[in-house]
Amino acid sequence: MTTTMEQLEDRTAADFYGYEALLPDEERKILLKARALMRDRVKPLVNENWAKGEFPEELIGLFRESGLAGLPYEGYGEHRPAASNLLSGLLALEMTRTDASVSTFFGVHNGLAMYSIHSGGDQEQRDRWLPAMAAMDKIGAFAMTEPLGGSDVAGGMRTTARREGDTWVLDGAKKWIGNATFADYVVVWARDVDDNHVKGFVVEKGTPGFAPEKIEGKTAFRIVENAEITLTGVRVPEADRLQNINSFRDVAEILRATRSGVAWQALGVMAGAYELALGYARERRQFGRPIGGFQLVQDLLVKSLGNITASWGMLVQLARLQDAGIFRDEHSALAKAFVTSRMREVVAWSREIFGGNGILLEHDIARFFADAEAIYSFEGTREMNTLIVGKSITGESAFV
To answer: Which residue intervals define the domain Acyl-CoA dehydrogenase/oxidase C-terminal in the entry (predicted)?
Structure first.
């Protein structure tokens, strides 16, 4: 696909090489629709609710009107052919350029929850749950992380599932589960006590024994409704067990795809922070001139742009590997580890350009600085993703 000068000039400030122009026209229109939604209707809601640590319920209505949910899944949502992985990644970036919490709310629903059902469910389950989720009439959540387990979840999952006839009984606890306080469907992962394999279950809101409690006191992702869930004798019919999930190997297929989405989020944080810093550098005056005219400020901006552009190139190629069906765990692991590390540098440099104003919520950059720490940690820490890549390139496992 040829990039025209007009497309290059139409790029956002962070898209220095014009990567958006790689999208076909139909998909770029969807991206621009998301950009307008985030700029005009979502951004005015962000700072007040971030400060209060509350999820604005009107967000669900705004996303419902937008028709952006369900795009990656052929036959579900407004974009009937499945959207490309490049569009899905750029949508995650676009939403995160405005706010990482809002992007995470949407990503948990449209990515983790819907992809788990689409990938792990049979056709009857997909047809039963996904249409309402694509319309955002029903909201999803994804419950894997536990209070005492994170990186060791593959072998250390403590939540159990015990079969009794055509019913499963779930017991245990989950933590950091986005959307869980209000979600209609929560995909809960539990270890079958009979065969010791991890299985997935869709638990509906209000099921007896299912008790989500909002986590308070967060210093990042303050708009996301993260919950700690207690499961006490939660009874789920066999019909609500994801039929194509028979072990953690099947779950890993889901995590491989969603990990790349987090890398796109990290790029979105970088893009948003850089654009805020660039705008501030053009407007803020010291010693009688804009601070953007000072060499040290330009140095921070150019290093930030270099990180962004390098990360963008990596993720575009990752999307191509996904579309071709040939991407592997180590591909998404390297992207998550590398891009989140570069993100940490960019948000620090961007906040530095703001000086003391950088800690004021009114300038937005403080949100990006705080939220970057959450993205750096979830969907596999840098260390765990490094070991995945290290095993791939050396043939030796360094996991202990």
So the answer is: 251-393
Superfamily of domain 248-394, CATH level 4? Butyryl-CoA Dehydrogenase, subunit A, domain 3 (1.20.140.10)
247's enclosing H/E stretch is: none
Question: For the whole model, what pTM was predicted?
Answer: 0.90
Domain 5-134 maps to which CATH number in 1.10.10.10, 1.10.540.10, 3.40.1190.20, 1.20.1560.10?
Answer: 1.10.540.10
Answer yes or no: same fold for 140-240 and 248-394: no
Identify whether the C-beta of residue 222 lies closer than 8 Å to the C-beta of residue 178.
no
Under 8 Å CB-to-CB from 341, ≥6 apart: which residues? 376, 382
Query: Over the stretch 207-243, which tens digit does the pLDDT of each residue have?
Result: 999 999 999 999 999 999 999 999 999 999 999 999 9
Strands 198-204 and 210-214: unpaired
Taking residue 100's Cβ as centre, other Cβ atoms within 10 Å add up to 28
Q: Which amino acid is at 364?
A: D
Q: Tell me: the pLDDT tens digits for 160-217? A: 999 999 999 999 999 999 999 999 999 999 999 999 999 999 999 999 999 999 999 9
Residues 6+ apart with CB under 8 A from 40: none
Tell me whether strands 160-164 and 185-192 are parallel, antiparallel or unpaired.
Answer: parallel
CATH number of 140-240: 2.40.110.10
Contacts of residue 288, defined as CB under 8 A and 6 or more positions apart, other chains included, come to none
Residues in the chain: 400
